[in-house]
Write a structure and sequence with these properties.
Blueprint: E1 9-18, E2 21-25, E3 30-34, E4 48-54, E5 60-63, E6 75-83, E7 87-91, E8 98-101, E9 118-125, E10 131-135, H1 138-144, E11 156-164, E12 168-173, E13 178-182, E14 195-203, E15 209-212, H2 217-234, E16 238-239, H3 247-254, H4 258-270, E17 274-277, E18 280-283, H5 285-288
Parallel strand pairs: 3-5, 13-15
Antiparallel strand pairs: 1-2, 1-4, 2-3, 4-5, 6-7, 6-9, 7-8, 9-10, 11-12, 11-14, 12-13, 14-15, 16-18, 17-18
Helix pairs in contact: 2-4
Length: 289
């Protein structure tokens, strides 16, 4: 059985030069340092600290680039490619990207990481010594996390999704806080690895935080008012909806509750942008110019 394993850092000596690089050895086994990995000041007679991986032909190879992410060492890696039949590839700083198997990803492919998302990973190998990304566990994140303070309440935070649950979503914020987004506090379930932004609605005794991805009340009114205003403009300034329209009609047209519709309409009326008459809402003459 080979003593040298992909995903690890070892010290090797130069064994011999070949047209495509150098073979390095631990005295029992040789691995190739490709010529593309050989720096100008390389001294084959000195002991070399190298990282082991599989090259594009599946052979164990060495590189002088030591990535942060390796066996037993975690770090954030960017997703660079998605292959539906395989999983996602992450970049760890090497010439070859590493696969996170679909077996370790959510069952629903729409919740898989997209290109540009980030995963907190270390590395693992299978029985054939092939290298794969290994996702961090809840325990790994708890070791990494810092404790939140009560003063964070109502502040905006950004964080990366690292775990999907039936009840909600776990994220780690940019500051290092562990956050939970209950499913009632989001419009759409985020992807694994997605960067999301929300506000802190609770700080728990264990130092983790509860987060909402829903807009604050005044933000929601602004968004709803803009939707209504845009619809009016698209219809030439008139629409057959007003504050006494049926809730199901409002929901069907604007995807908002009647309460939200009335608040947004009230905002537009207060600003002098619309008027209501005989079951219709109209842009004012000022807005119609």
């Amino acid at each position: 059985m080979s003593r040298l394993e992909a995903g690890t850092v070892v010290q090797l000596f130069g064994a011999r030069e070949v047209p495509f690089g150098y073979f390095l050895t631990d005295g029992e086994e040789d691995v190739l340092l490709h010529h593309t990995e050989v720096p100008d000041n390389f001294d084959p007679h000195q002991e070399q600290t190298v990282f082991l991986y599989q090259d594009h032909e599946g052979r164990l190879a060495a590189t002088l680039t030591i990535p942060e992410i390796r066996k037993g060492h975690f770090g954030w890696a960017e997703v660079v490619e998605v292959k539906e039949n395989l999983g996602v590839f992450i970049h760890i700083g090497l010439s070859k990207d590493v696969l996170v198997s679909k077996d370790d990803l959510p069952e629903l492919s729409r919740l898989w990481p997209a290109k540009g998302d980030k995963l907190y990973c270390s590395l693992k190998t299978d029985k054939k010594n092939r290298l794969f990304g290994k996702l961090g566990t809840e325990e790994d994140f708890r070791r990494l996390a810092i404790s939140a303070e009560k003063k964070l309440l109502n502040r905006n935070v950004k964080g990366t999704v690292y775990r999907l649950l039936l009840e909600g979503t776990n994220i780690m914020t940019e500051e290092g806080y562990l956050g939970f987004i209950h499913r009632s506090e989001r419009v759409k379930e985020p992807r694994l690895g997605q960067l999301v932004e929300g506000r802190v609605i609770g700080v728990k005794e264990d130092g983790s935080i509860n987060i909402s991805l829903l807009p604050r009340a005044h933000e929601a009114i602004d968004e709803d008012a803009e939707r209504i205003y845009s619809y009016l403009v698209s219809r030439g300034g008139n629409m057959p909806y007003w504050d006494k329209s049926l809730p199901e009609d409002i929901k069907g047209r604007f995807q908002m509750s009647k309460g939200s519709f009335k608040r947004a309409l009230g905002k537009l009326m207060k600003e002098g942008k619309v008027i209501q008459k005989d079951g219709w809402t109209h842009l004012t003459e000022k807005e119609n110019r």
